[in-house]
Write a structure and sequence with these properties.
alpha/beta; eight-stranded mixed beta sheet; 18 strands
């Protein structure tokens, strides 16, 4: 008689250890046993040999709706399933509908719920003209965190939040225990740097990094953490491209403040002198891609435990928005959902970093950060059976060839990867296998944090 619905055997990658010849037993949607050795009886069982079995990744920074009528959840979650990502946390800056009220959150839940192939959580934000008034109703509607920006990309869709309003928002969020995440670029400093670049007549690949030098990032980073310290609100820098930023975050944590920091996969893979030079607008991201020396600094911070989580900042702009010869005229951001996990595995192995960091930074810590760890983020008994299986198979990534992306371009095209996502399970159901996404639109589920209570201590 079968004890379980599903059993998978292989190398378990946990946040604190690697378990050779380990197995996961699933009943219904949840993990029922984690063991080692002989496989228990199951209705469906797979001995995967040398395959890596990781917790399904939680991508804490996805923009499914940045370009109207372009990607949407039907494609972002398809890419996620193909990449071993079982939960996405979607950003609130949707073209045509800033997610800044309880009604907007509920509209987005209904919209995404009809399309999503894997699970999803949502960020909320504020309209500067309304202030912090609607934060409580967004908490009630189920947002997992809030997102603000110290730089104004667009006055309506992606507005700058002035210092006084940012403080007010942090103070309003603080009693809920949720996190205030902030895009960390100082508006005044960036605009001054942009004018210098334009005055110099620089329009090629160099223009973007020159228009946003590291100091513009670090000034905002300090503002964000000081605002958190002053209000008691957990403060989060949503992407950091320079090593100094992780030093700053660590110093605030050492002082007892909840100061978390996120590293996007592109900052661990791409560099300015090679990739941005080659790709131009297709590697334009805010903050910018930095030189290779800075990339290696970030990997050292990964190794030392100074990074809270790794994400993609995924957005699939149509190609015409990424190919302008004038670097600054291109949209900012790149797709990455399908390839984040294999890229991180490759980078960690090349630098001798334990693969336990993959389970920590792309599953456990994001689950804790967004307060979803009551059912997400770990290969543990009682948690959702969200599982990514990677097999040792060398291949060259090509976004167009996979067919699981709304766009056929990627800054990661041509990269040789040693491990491939072979299968993905979301709540015990196989949603991807052998290059094909099996999940249908609507199979994904909205996930929300538990009733908000202040957290006991900092996330590592």
């Amino acid at each position: 008689m079968a004890d379980f619905d599903l059993v998978l055997k292989g190398t378990l990658v946990l946040p604190d250890l690697i378990v050779e010849a380990g197995h996961i037993g699933v009943i219904g949607e949840r993990i029922a046993v984690v063991g080692q050795g002989a496989m228990p009886a199951a209705k469906e069982s797979h001995d995967l040999g040398r395959a890596l079995i990781l917790p399904g990744a939680i991508d804490g920074q996805v923009h499914s709706l940045s370009q109207k009528d372009q990607e949407d959840f039907i494609w972002s979650t398809r890419s996620a399933a193909a990449g071993g990502v079982t939960t996405i946390v979607d950003m609130p800056y949707d073209e045509g509908d800033l997610v800044c009220s309880g009604n907007a959150v509920r509209r987005k839940i209904a919209h995404a719920g009809a399309q999503a192939r894997v699970d999803f959580a949502l960020y909320g934000t504020v309209d500067p003209e309304e202030g912090s008034l609607r934060i409580p109703e967004m908490v009630e509607a189920g947002v997992a965190a809030f997102k603000f920006s110290t730089f104004g990309t667009d006055p309506k869709r992606f507005p700058r939040i002035p210092a006084a309003l940012l403080e007010d928002c942090f103070a309003t969020i603080a009693p809920t225990g949720l996190t205030a995440g902030v895009h960390n670029e100082d508006d005044e400093a960036v605009r001054a740097a942009i004018e210098k670049v334009k005055a110099a007549g620089i329009t090629d690949y160099r223009a973007h990094a020159l228009s946003r030098p590291p100091l513009t990032e670090l000034l905002a980073t300090n503002q964000i953490y000081e605002t958190g310290a002053a209000t008691g609100c957990p403060a989060h820098v949503v992407h950091c491209s320079v090593g100094r930023g992780y030093d700053i975050a660590r110093s605030y944590r050492n002082q007892g403040f909840r100061a978390t920091i996120e590293c996007c996969i592109h900052y661990l893979v791409l560099d300015e002198e090679n990739d941005v030079r080659r790709l131009g607008g297709k590697a334009k991201i805010n903050p910018p891609i930095r030189p290779r020396a800075e990339v290696e600094k970030l990997w050292r911070h990964v190794a030392e435990g100074n990074v809270t989580l790794v994400s993609t900042d995924h957005v699939s702009w149509s190609e015409n928005r990424k190919t302008n010869p004038d670097m600054l005229a291109n949209s900012s951001g790149v797709p990455g959902l399908e390839v984040m996990v294999p890229l991180f595995i490759k980078g960690a192995l090349e630098r001798g970093i334990p693969l336990t960091r993959a389970a920590e930074l792309m599953a456990l810590n994001p689950a804790r950060h967004f307060r979803l760890d009551h059912e997400k983020g770990a290969l543990e008994v009682g948690k959702h059976a969200d599982i990514a299986v990677l097999t040792p198979e060398r291949y060259v990534y090509d976004a167009a060839e996979s067919g699981n992306n709304v766009v056929g371009w990627s800054p990661y095209n041509g990269i040789h990867l040693p491990w491939r996502v072979a299968a993905t399970y979301n709540r015990g159901r196989k949603v991807y296998e052998g290059g094909k996404v099996l999940a249908a639109p609507g199979d994904g589920r909205f996930v929300r944090p538990l009733a908000s209570l202040p957290l006991a201590g900092p996330v590592a």
